C-alpha cells in the first residue's frame, strides 16, 4: 500500500518553508539529482556547499545557479574525490574550517555500472570505494559538526540493493573473482544503506538524539549517473528507457533527498523513502518498501568494523 502521509501527490517542495540560516552539504551536486536538490534548497534561501570532484563542472554549476537565483545565492563548492581517501580528509578539513553549521549532509554522489573492475588509489573496488567507503569516512569526520547543529545524515541509496548477492561478500569485497558491473554496484549501494541503519542503532545505543539518519532513493530518474560511468551498452539501454514513462526527471529524483534533509514530519528512521508508484521507481514520494536484508544486524555490524579498518577511522559516539 502506497504511503499517503503527504497526500495523493506525495511529498513535493511546496511543503518546504524558508530555509534562511540553514546549511546543506551535498556530495555530487554539480549535475543530476544533486544539482536539482541544490536548486530547490537555494530557492528557499538555504546555504548550499557542494562537494564535487570536478572544479570545472562545479564552477559552471554555480554560474547557472547564480544566474537563476541571483548573485547573492549562497552556494559554493569544495573539491572532493570520494574515491581518494586523502581527498575526503582534505575536504572534511576545509568544511570544518569554513562551514560553522551543517543542518544536513546529503550523501548523493555515486558511480554506477563500471563495466570493468577498477581499483581506487587506496586499493578498493571502485564502486564500493567511492559510494560507500568515501562517504563512510566523510560522515565520520563531519559527524560532530552535524551533531552540533542537531542535523541529519541522508544516504541516497538505490533499488539496486535488491539485486546482486543481497549481502556483503566479505571474503572478496574487491571482487578479485566474478566481478560484474551490476553485482558490484548493488553491493556498494547495499553497503551504504547498512552504514545508515547501523549508525541508527549505534546512536540509539549511545542514547544520542542529536543526529537523525534517513535513507532514500531517487527511483528511475534521468540523471547522468549511468552515462558517466556505465558501459556503451548500458548507456544505450538507459537512453531508451528515458523515453518511457518508467523514468522521471532529475528534479523529481531529487525530491526524496530534499524531503529527508528537511521534512520535520518525517519521524521513522528505519525506513526507505522514495517514489511509491509503479515498481516504486516513479510516482509520489513517500515511504516505500524496505527489505530485511538491508538491515541484517550481523552483516551490518561486521561491515561497520571492516569499513573502519579500511578507511583508518574509528567513529566515537
TrEMBL record:
<protein>
    <submittedName>
        <fullName>SDR family oxidoreductase</fullName>
    </submittedName>
</protein>
<dbReference type="InterPro" id="IPR002347">
    <property type="entry name" value="SDR_fam"/>
</dbReference>
<dbReference type="InterPro" id="IPR036291">
    <property type="entry name" value="NAD(P)-bd_dom_sf"/>
</dbReference>
<dbReference type="GO" id="GO:0016491">
    <property type="term" value="F:oxidoreductase activity"/>
</dbReference>
<keyword id="KW-0560">Oxidoreductase</keyword>
<dbReference type="Pfam" id="PF00106">
    <property type="entry name" value="adh_short"/>
</dbReference>
Amino acid at each position: 500500500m502506497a504511503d499517503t502521509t503527504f497526500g495523493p501527490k506525495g511529498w513535493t517542495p511546496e511543503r518546504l518553508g524558508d530555509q534562511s540560516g540553514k546549511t546543506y552539504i551535498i556530495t555530487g551536486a554539480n549535475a543530476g539529482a544533486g544539482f536539482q536538490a541544490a536548486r530547490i534548497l537555494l530557492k528557499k534561501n538555504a546555504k548550499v556547499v557542494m562537494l564535487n570532484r570536478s572544479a570545472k563542472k562545479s564552477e559552471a554549476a554555480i554560474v547557472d545557479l547564480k544566474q537563476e537565483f541571483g548573485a547573492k545565492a549562497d552556494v559554493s563548492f569544495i573539491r572532493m574525490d570520494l574515491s581518494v581517501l586523502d581527498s575526503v580528509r582534505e575536504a572534511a578539513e576545509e568544511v570544518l574550517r569554513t562551514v560553522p553549521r551543517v543542518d544536513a549532509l546529503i550523501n548523493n554522489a555515486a558511480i554506477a555500472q563500471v563495466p570493468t573492475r577498477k581499483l581506487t588509489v587506496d586499493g578498493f573496488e571502485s564502486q564500493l570505494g567511492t559510494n560507500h567507503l568515501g562517504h563512510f569516512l566523510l560522515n565520520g569526520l563531519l559527524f560532530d559538526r552535524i551533531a552540533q547543529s542537531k542535523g541529519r545524515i541522508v544516504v541516497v541509496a538505490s533499488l539496486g540493493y535488491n539485486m546482486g548477492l543481497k549481502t556483503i561478500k566479505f571474503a572478496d569485497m574487491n571482487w578479485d573473482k566474478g566481478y560484474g558491473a551490476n553485482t558490484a554496484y548493488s553491493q556498494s549501494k547495499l553497503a551504504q544503506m547498512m552504514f545508515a541503519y547501523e549508525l541508527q542503532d549505534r546512536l540509539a545505543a549511545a542514547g544520542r538524539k542529536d543526529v537523525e539518519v534517513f535513507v532514500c532513493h531517487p527511483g528511475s530518474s534521468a540523471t547522468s549517473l549511468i552515462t558517466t560511468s556505465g558501459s556503451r551498452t548500458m548507456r544505450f539501454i538507459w537512453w531508451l528507457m528515458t523515453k518511457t514513462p518508467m523514468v522521471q526527471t532529475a528534479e523529481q529524483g531529487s525530491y526524496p533527498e530534499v524531503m529527508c534533509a528537511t521534512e520535520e514530519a518525517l519521524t521513522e528512521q528505519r525506513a526507505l523513502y522514495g517514489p511509491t508508484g509503479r515498481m516504486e521507481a516513479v510516482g509520489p514520494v513517500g515511504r516505500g518498501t524496505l527489505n530485511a536484508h538491508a538491515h541484517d544486524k550481523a552483516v551490518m555490524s561486521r561491515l561497520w568494523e571492516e569499513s573502519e579498518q579500511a578507511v583508518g577511522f574509528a567513529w566515537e559516539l
